[in-house]
Amino acid sequence: MCFPCREDEYSDIEINVLWNKDHTDDERLYPIKERGGKVLDFFPFEDEEWSESYIVSNVKYEISNFRTITFQRIIDDLLIKQEADIEKQVLLASLQSGIPLIGKDIFKASRRQIDRYPTALTINLIKEYKEVTNSWHSRYGLLARNDWYMFQQVLFSVEKNILILLFVLNKEFIQHPGFKWLRKSVNALKVKPSNFLERSEKIHIGQLTMKDLQELEKILVETYRLVERAYPEIDLNEAKQKSMLTCPTNNKQSL
Length: 255
Prior knowledge:
alpha+beta, 255 residues
């Protein structure tokens, strides 16, 4: 299956190939040689995947090969075991947005399994990503010192959790671990803080200020409210208290 739903002049063509038996390197290389492609990468089996990339007519192809039983197990891990695993979500998202090239019956059968996003999976993911990291407590100090590298990492760690919570609230599988095509993905979400995308983007335009930091704090609070409204049975009190903590300041003047 391939994924044509989002593309521009910089896009690769991404294809997942499911195999019902182990294959040879020659079988993987055959379509590349047939099209006169130039191999860029050709990786052996690792992390339950074979992968390769190549170029034909100035177009880059990214191929991921999986055993069919592996793909089915990943579906079971998320939908039956309700594992809070973002990488596995990315594979299931490919079923939602992909188009089958062959094996349409297998594709449709797998897709039917993910039509219903389990509530238990939603709750597990909220519990996993509801709390900010300890580094968030240092945000005012990092801003005051202009420690821009660490400060940006802290902001992105919180923004990542916010994005995961919003995708979960909308019962949408996360399509990329780095939130590629973020603007299009977020625009498709119905449940989110008001003007979420515009507010988030302004935080990273120009030099970061206290106002920008306080805006992110507001977005985090609003996201917690959305979670509480949808799932009042989840206790967010500790997470909210942790999100408000800051490192103490030392106001003693040197003599």
